[in-house]
Amino acid sequence: MSPVGIFGGTFDPIHYGHLRTAFEMLQALRFDEVRFIPSGDPPHRGRTYASAQLRLEMVAAATAREEHFVVDDRELRRDGPSYTVDTLASIRQEQTDTALGLILGMDAFLGLCSWHRWDEILDLAHIVVAHRPGWRAPDMGPLGELIAEFGTHRVDDLHENTAGRIHIHAVTQLEISSTEIRELVMAGRDPRFLMPDVVRDVIMNSSCYAKQEIQLAEKRKLHGQ
Ligand code: ATP
């Protein structure tokens, strides 16, 4: 069976940078499917702006028309911080013989060494890194060493092993970020064409990134709620 791509993120909101990256990975790396996993309580981020329910709704709407995209809400059903290593372990329990490819943008990959039990991740999955605008692959330090030891240019290596390899893959550079989208909406501008219309509809109908909602989210964060 072909590898399954695992794509976690806050998706606050999901946009074409995420979708195009996942689609190019799906095709170029011959993945069986890509699973989008919205994070519940992201340990590195401290907060999200749209509720978990809305982020899930946006991911579901954005991916509904691609049959090889799957939405997985396990992190939203789990209490406590959403550690990737726990998510991978729970998928691995269900799919013992399937190759798993954790999809990360280069910015996320560069922060890998600060992740909870990061050194166990390659035991559970491959890591496939998408080039993102403005970021370079590390050639020294722990990540440089990791790439030297486990890096591969061969897509077949991702099929022949269930975990343990790092593959860096150039994707079409779409300089879109969720942060910029939230700022744009907060400034009263239209995020159209940065994401599927169905996602924009959720944003517009819920006003989740309107100024007062963002201020409320900031306040909740300040009070640790
Ligand atoms: P924010 O601006 O809130 O930090 P983001 O746009 O980076 O959000 P996340 O949900 O945090 O989105 O990202 C999930 C994953 O998608 C990460 O691995 C990130 O590197 C990757 N990613 C995000 N935007 C892009 C993009 N434009 N191109 C390629 N990968 C991306």
Give structural notes.
It is a single chain. 42% of the residues lie in helices and 13% in strands. The longest helix has 13 residues, at 16-28. α1 links the parallel β1 (4-9) and β2 (33-38). The protein starts with a strand and ends with a helix. The relative contact order is 0.18. It folds into two domains: 4-170, Rossmann fold, CATH 3.40.50; 178-222, no CATH class. The chain is of the alpha/beta class and 225 residues long. It has eleven helices and six strands. It has a six-stranded parallel β-sheet, with helices on both faces. The chain binds adenosine-5'-triphosphate. Residues 9-12, 17-18, 21, 104-105, 107-108, 130, 132, 174, 176-179 line the site of adenosine-5'-triphosphate.
Blueprint (SSEs and pairs):
Elements: E1 4-9, H1 16-28, E2 33-38, H2 52-63, E3 69-71, H3 74-77, H4 84-94, E4 100-105, H5 106-110, H6 121-124, E5 126-130, H7 141-150, H8 156-160, E6 166-169, H9 178-186, H10 197-206, H11 211-222
Helix pairs in contact: 2-10
Strand segment tally = 6
- How many domain units? 2
- Overall CATH class of the largest domain: Alpha Beta
List unreliable stretches of 5+ residues: none
Q: Which ligands, by name, code or SMILES, are bound?
A: adenosine-5'-triphosphate
* Overall outline: globular
The helicity comes to 40-55%
Q: Strand arrangement, largest sheet?
A: 3-2-1-4-5-6
- Pattern of helices and strands: EHEHEHHEHHEHHEHHH
CATH architecture of the largest domain: 3-Layer(aba) Sandwich
Cα-atom radius of gyration? 17 Å
Q: Distance between the terminal alpha carbons, to the nearest Å?
A: 43 Å
Question: Can you give the mean pLDDT?
Answer: 92
Number of helices: 11
Major β-sheet, in short? 6 strands, parallel
* CATH level-4 homologous superfamily of the largest domain: HUPs
Approximately how much beta-strand content do the residues carry?
5-15%
Secondary structure category: alpha/beta
